[in-house]
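Reviewer comment 2.1 asked that we show a complete input and output for one of the modelled complexes. We chose the flavin-adenine dinucleotide case, as it is the one discussed in the main text.
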Amino acid sequence: MANVALYWFTNDLRLHDNACLHQAAQQADKLLCVYCVDPRWFAPNRYTHNRIANHRWRFLVESLRALDARLRKHDQQLLVVYQQPLDTIAQLITQHDVARIYRSRTADYYLNRDWQTLLQRYPMLQFVQQDSHTLFDLEQLPFELRDLPATFTEFRKKVEDIGLPPPLSAPDYLPPSPAGSDLADVDLPPLEDTETSFSGGEIAALQHISWYFARQLASNYKAVRNELGGWENSTKLSPWLANGSLSARHVMQELRAYEQRFSANDSTYWIFFELLWRDYFQWYAHRHDKHLFLFDGGKRRKPSTGYYPERYRKWCAGNTPYAIVNACMKQLNATGYMSNRGRQIVASCLVNELDSDWRGGAAYFEQQLVDYDVASNWGNWQYLAGVGPDPRGKRHFDLQKQTGQYDPDGVFIEKWQGDCGDQQLDSVDAADWPIMPSD
Ligand code: FAD
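Response of the prediction step:
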């Protein structure tokens, strides 16, 4: 009987540098390639937001189409299913007598819960996962995950000299799909027009990275990476890295090739440094599991902030008394992207000026960001809110100073119409009394 395997694509929407797909290709006679679009992403969560909105949804659909096109060159296809993963995979196991299930390791809490359920429910099957979302494999880390260093600096010192596994090329061969697994048309939620600069998919990712490193932008990265706007001021690799259309090890290979060509400097090192941050947050998410989403965070220390619905709504819409914050939020809402400095500024504002629960901010980012990554997002929010891996406690950015430094001529604020006039933070006072004009 044919040895049927199921490859569950999640955050590895590519053929290049995909070790687990290589392994599946070597071990299976027949292979089902599956991606599950979970209907729960499109329903409001406890923060009243969906888990995905237009920008990332479009980017994801493009990425899935691109992956399917790549697979078809190998006489394969991507089975996209609009159903909860557990139900889908259970059905496919029965329908095709699946013997092995493969996936890339992910820090996604819900997917890991499903993976554990499958492990328990199907003890006779073989489950295989490998690291392809991170620079390092889990086995390469010079400590047990439970002993993950409490700060990024400690982590960096321990790992930065470890040799990275070279990225693999795409497999030459993929086993065919089993009979009866042809695609029926799936009715996915509709795509809406978005104003975006990012095209989804592995080929678009590889083209973008070639474009970035063909110019001498990396040599000046450190000096400009904090700018609020400007396509060339940072790599803009994050959306492709987040859904795995691009491998971080491939980025490192391109970076090293660039350094050979043009020479290494502080700026080229800093791109590696940021990718180490990304790795740190991945392992941090694995280490802290559900605490990634809890109020007291990895530090298990409850902040003193509260929940103010009106402030929160104004923050989401970019309608606060702070022009720089409004401009960044309007950029996010219009494009799905915000610079790293912008993200720090608006997060600090929510937590400090608006005295609000950081998780509302993380949930809104989850919905809006084109590059949403569970570990990078919730980890960075914890860091900013003082419940994450920062020994110094929460970060409070001086909004006036930030404006002077990053938008001295008001160009960014004007572009995104950040100035909302005489906007008040609250239209009622804390005891629910309407605020009179003279207050
Ligand atoms: P570059 O500056 O060119 O950096 C290169 C790569 O390094 C990025 O593509 C990214 O993969 C990684 N990187 C850079 N900074 C960080 C960082 N602080 N943490 C983790 N990885 C980093 N990044 C995401 O990819 N997804 C998120 O959901 C996300 N949410 C964030 C939320 C907050 C509150 C903050 C402060 C930061 C968040 N970041 C997130 C990190 C960072 O802002 C983005 O990765 C970066 O702005 C993306 O633009 P870029 O690719 O041009 O980055």
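The mean pLDDT is 94. We note this here for comparison with the apo prediction described in Section 3.2.
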